[in-house]
From TrEMBL:
<feature type="transmembrane region" description="Helical">
    <location>
        <begin position="169"/>
        <end position="187"/>
    </location>
</feature>
<keyword id="KW-0472">Membrane</keyword>
<protein>
    <submittedName>
        <fullName>Uncharacterized protein</fullName>
    </submittedName>
</protein>
<feature type="transmembrane region" description="Helical">
    <location>
        <begin position="145"/>
        <end position="162"/>
    </location>
</feature>
<feature type="transmembrane region" description="Helical">
    <location>
        <begin position="193"/>
        <end position="212"/>
    </location>
</feature>
<feature type="transmembrane region" description="Helical">
    <location>
        <begin position="81"/>
        <end position="99"/>
    </location>
</feature>
<keyword id="KW-0812">Transmembrane</keyword>
<keyword id="KW-1133">Transmembrane helix</keyword>
<feature type="transmembrane region" description="Helical">
    <location>
        <begin position="26"/>
        <end position="52"/>
    </location>
</feature>
<feature type="transmembrane region" description="Helical">
    <location>
        <begin position="120"/>
        <end position="139"/>
    </location>
</feature>
Amino acid sequence: MHQEQQASSLDTLREIRTIMERSARLLSLSGWSGIWAGLVALAGSAIAYVWLQTAGPGTFEPAAYTPMEHATARDTGINNLLLLALVVFLVALAGGYYFTYRKNKKQGISIWNSASRKMIVSMMIPIAAAALLILVFLYQGDLQYVVPVCLILYGMALFNGSRYTISDIRYLGILEIILGCIALFVSGWVWSLYLWAFGFGVLHILYGIIMWRKYDQQ
């Protein structure tokens, strides 16, 4: 009788612990969110590669050194890249939200709570800083700094957000930061774009597959 009561008490404690954990942090993001984001990033990288490949010589030189005949092409190219980046971000975000919402709905968990709000705030600070720096670098023609800033500050955003969701994304964040640091020493937009595609595309897909097998299948 005593053993049955003890077992019942342990089950109750486990239930309480589970409820507390769920209220303290946002449940795991769907692995499909990472896969979707990676596929969208690879598609965006391919489009950017074509645009940059077909741009005229000197189009993306620093603004002070851009020949007058390339100034219009430079401004148009920068605007196209910014629009492409915005579309990629919004499409990836929408898909990530959809897959995570669908997963949490099946589990009966609300996706919008205090933990998710804290997660958004902690992630948006580095992302907002990255957006400002990218605008400055693009309009100065300093493309070599755009990819490192994207990767490093996005990695910091993931690391910050890991406090409110599954801790596994901190490792993805660390990898993004390391990749961004490597990009600082890479010259040429081709290799920079490859690193961007690897960081936002390949790593996201690998992360999504691992998270799907680790959490979504349970």
